[in-house]
């Protein structure tokens, strides 16, 4: 019976939307994004400019905040978009996977296929499967202003990347990154300071 108490990973889409307080407009925009807009062309293909506008307009109605002149490229996944913020002149590049509770500052560039994961799994108990143990509280990811994140980088829960930093392609960021740092590797380590 203990197993049946935790239903974190057994919710359907409707119950998740209700629990997160998503209104009708946000749910409709989520449907339109995942059913249509996510699959529209990306630069340099014909129609990419219109597709980018459509994705940005949908994101404005889904995310907590979307700044000016932002870009949401094709094939980006952001869950339900709850508590996601995207600052001015920042972009979510092709194939990005952004968790809820992610705050991205101003002038943030990222390569394709960046993953930002604010959730995790409990695994302390050995008498039941990890799947049945549910999840700890989500730990938001914060990316400050003027950051460049290389392609295929993975950023783990609770990480704060300081302003003016560079994260090398293919890095796994497990700890906070100080401002003006250049980090890389798996796990990411300081390479040098930009200043």
Descriptive key words:
19% helix, five-stranded mixed sheet, UDP N-Acetylglucosamine Acyltransferase, domain 1, 195 residues, five-stranded parallel sheet, alpha/beta, 4 helices
What's the arrangement of secondary structure elements?
Elements: H1 2-5, H2 13-19, H3 24-35, H4 48-62, E1 65-66, E2 71-72, E3 85-86, E4 91-92, E5 97-98, E6 102-104, E7 109-110, E8 115-116, E9 141-143, E10 148-149, E11 154-155, E12 160-161, E13 166-167, E14 172-173, E15 181-184, E16 189-193
Parallel strand pairs: 1-3, 2-4, 3-6, 5-8, 6-9, 7-10, 8-11, 9-12, 10-13, 11-14, 13-15
Antiparallel strand pairs: 15-16
Helix pairs in contact: 3-4
Provide mean pLDDT, rounded.
Answer: 90
Q: Any idea what the CATH superfamily of the domain at 66-193 is called?
A: Hexapeptide repeat proteins
Structural class: alpha/beta
Which sequence of SSEs, written as H and E, runs from N to C? HHHHEEEEEEEEEEEEEEEE
Contiguous runs where pLDDT drops below 50 for at least 5 residues: 1-10
Q: How many E-type strands?
A: 16
EC number: 2.3.1.-
Protein name: Acyltransferase
InterPro entries: Hexapep, Hexapep_transf_CS, Hexapeptide_acetyltransf, Trimer_LpxA-like_sf
Pfam family, one: Hexapep
Account of the protein in words:
The protein has 195 residues and is α/β, with parallel strands linked by helices. The protein has a domain at 66-193: UDP N-Acetylglucosamine Acyltransferase, domain 1, CATH 2.160.10. 19% of the residues lie in helices and 20% in strands. The chain contains four helices and 16 strands. The longest helix has 15 residues, at 48-62. The radius of gyration is 18 Å and the shape is globular. It starts with a helix and ends with a strand. Keywords: Acyltransferase, Repeat, Transferase. This is Acyltransferase.
């Amino acid at each position: 019976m203990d197993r049946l108490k935790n239903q974190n990973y057994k919710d359907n889409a409707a119950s998740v939307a209700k629990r997160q307080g998503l209104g009708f407009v946000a749910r409709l925009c989520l449907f339109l994004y995942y059913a249509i807009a996510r699959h529209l062309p990306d630069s340099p293909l014909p129609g990419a400019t219109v597709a980018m506008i459509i994705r940005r307009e949908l994101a404005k109605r889904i995310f907590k905040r979307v700044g000016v002149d932002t870009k949401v490229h094709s094939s980006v996944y952001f869950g339900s978009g709850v508590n996601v913020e995207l600052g001015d002149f920042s972009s979510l590049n092709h194939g990005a996977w952004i968790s809820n509770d992610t705050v991205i500052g101003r002038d943030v560039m990222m390569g394709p296929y960046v993953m930002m994961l604010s959730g995790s799994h409990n695994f302390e108990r050995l008498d039941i499967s990890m799947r049945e143990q549910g999840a700890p509280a989500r730990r938001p990811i914060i990316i400050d202003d003027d950051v460049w994140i290389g392609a295929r980088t993975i950023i783990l829960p609770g990480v704060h990347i300081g302003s003016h930093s560079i994260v090398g392609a293919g890095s796994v960021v497990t700890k906070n990154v100080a401002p003006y740092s250049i980090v890389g590797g798996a796990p990411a380590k300081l390479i040098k300071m930009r200043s």
